[in-house]
Amino acid sequence: MNILILTTGIALSVFFLYMFIISLVEKEYRAAKISFVFSILILIPFLLIYFIDFSFKDIISYTIIGLILGLLLVLFLPIRPGIKDSFQIPIKKHDERDIMFSRNELIPETEKFENYYQQNLEKRELDDKFRTKPGLLSRKSSLFHPFTFASAEANLQIIEVLKPLVNADLADIKEKTDPQKITSYIKNWTKQLGAHSVGITLLKDYHLYSYKGRGKLYGHEINNKHTFAIALTVEMNHQMMQTAPQGPVVMESTQQYLNSGTIALQIAHFIRNLGYSAKAHIDGNYELICPLVARDAGLGEIGRMGLLMTPKLGPRVRIAVVTTELPLIMDNQKDNSHIIDFCEICKKCADICPSASIPDGTRENIDGALRWKINHEKCFTYWCTVGTDCGKCMTVCPFSHPDNFLHNVIRWGIYNSYIFRRFALFMDDLFYGRKPKTKPISSWMQ
């Protein structure tokens, strides 16, 4: 029994030392300090029991080991009560003209501007607030940073150059393809090109916007008749996102919009080279709502902050979509209801949101779907004040930690157990803080 109690103490101490090393690598110094202290403190009682003789030593040793095993059993026992209405199909299409990026492009005193606010009078006063602010990537914004802002602007300029490529001619000959083989090829190639995840779903009516809200086709009704949608995600760098809401965030965000868009364009052109129609949906040129498509393609769930929550990276991704007539094999919808349950109890994104745009209550029925409603006007007004797309909600999300063994074990526990979710949230708050401090900008960006 003495050896067993000592071995148990050493194993727990080694685990926290492992956490200490991982935290140092991730530059999470608060977590590293706490892990190191735990690695020492947790070993002390086991050493005392091992080296000191006293009455009931064996009974106490058995009790301690029994409690540890019992705790592990409770935490990792599969307890997954069903989440009521984890997802509901929206009964109403969204009009792209209503999103903040479209409203931001409206020019005062123009016919388009006047027509929009005549039909949406309630939005005029809200939008006048963000128009009084400096604007995204503005030199006058409160967090202006010359290098990172210029880099972000360069990314957006290249995306603008790529937009005409979303439509192109088809090859003269339509190749015969096997759905199973071509699906496997596209998925493997997409990941080879740099995607973190990829999934396929049937293109559904509620995926599509009702009307275009940006560019030359503003106000045109969307009529996409493709059968399938290929959704892909790319990872945003963890350390750059930890500087939120400073310049590196918008630099990395736009970089991954560019990367995801480039991959989508390559896939779309590949499909057209086989003689099948395909369209890439990239930043600033969407006909659909990417998170809804990605959700139905099995890549995640829509969380509290209104973004796609992926199982391994949380919201720390950017999404692009390719729609096509090419016959493909669609993915089965995965049960990601554990994400909904975790978002219900977590609320870290709501607590840290600088503009208080994320609700801290439960989901509501909005347009026929049960979801959390973000205050987009307040969020965008804050963006226009600081000059970046903020990202604080992404950085604090427990799902956003790096994709490694330690965090993946925790993610598995969150998936596996209702009880573990509550324990994981408590530990995340303890090690990383309820409202983690913004990390400094890397010296090479200065």
Question: What's the helix and strand layout?
Answer:
Elements: H1 2-25, H2 29-41, H3 43-51, H4 57-76, H5 100-105, H6 111-119, H7 121-131, H8 146-162, H9 179-192, E1 197-202, E2 228-235, H10 238-241, H11 247-273, E3 278-281, H12 290-296, E4 301-302, E5 308-309, E6 317-324, H13 337-346, H14 348-352, E7 364-366, E8 369-371, H15 376-386, H16 392-396, H17 405-416, H18 418-432
Antiparallel strand pairs: 1-2, 2-6, 3-6, 4-5, 7-8
Short note summarizing the structure:
It contains 18 helices and 8 strands. By secondary structure, it is of the alpha+beta class. It is globular.
Rounded to an integer in angstroms, the radius of gyration calculated over CA atoms is: 25 Å
Helical content stands at 40-55%
The overall strand count is 8
- Low-confidence parts: none
Shape: globular
Strand-residue proportion: 5-15%
Largest sheet: 4 strands, antiparallel
Average predicted confidence as pLDDT? 94
- Total helical elements: 18
Estimated structural class: alpha+beta
List the helices and strands in order.
HHHHHHHHHEEHHEHEEEHHEEHHHH
Looking across the biggest beta sheet, what order are the strands in?
A: 1-2-6-3
First-last Cα distance? 58 Å
Structural account:
The protein has helices at residues 2-25, 29-41, 43-51, 57-76, 100-105, 111-119, 121-131, 146-162, 179-192, 238-241, 247-273, 290-296, 337-346, 348-352, 376-386, 392-396, 405-416, 418-432, and strands at residues 197-202, 228-235, 278-281, 301-302, 308-309, 317-324, 364-366, 369-371. With 446 residues, the chain is of the alpha+beta class. A four-stranded antiparallel beta sheet has the order 1-2-6-3, sandwiched between helices. The protein has a two-stranded antiparallel sheet with strand order 4-5. The protein is globular and about 90 Å long. The N and C termini lie far apart (58 Å). The mean pLDDT is 94.
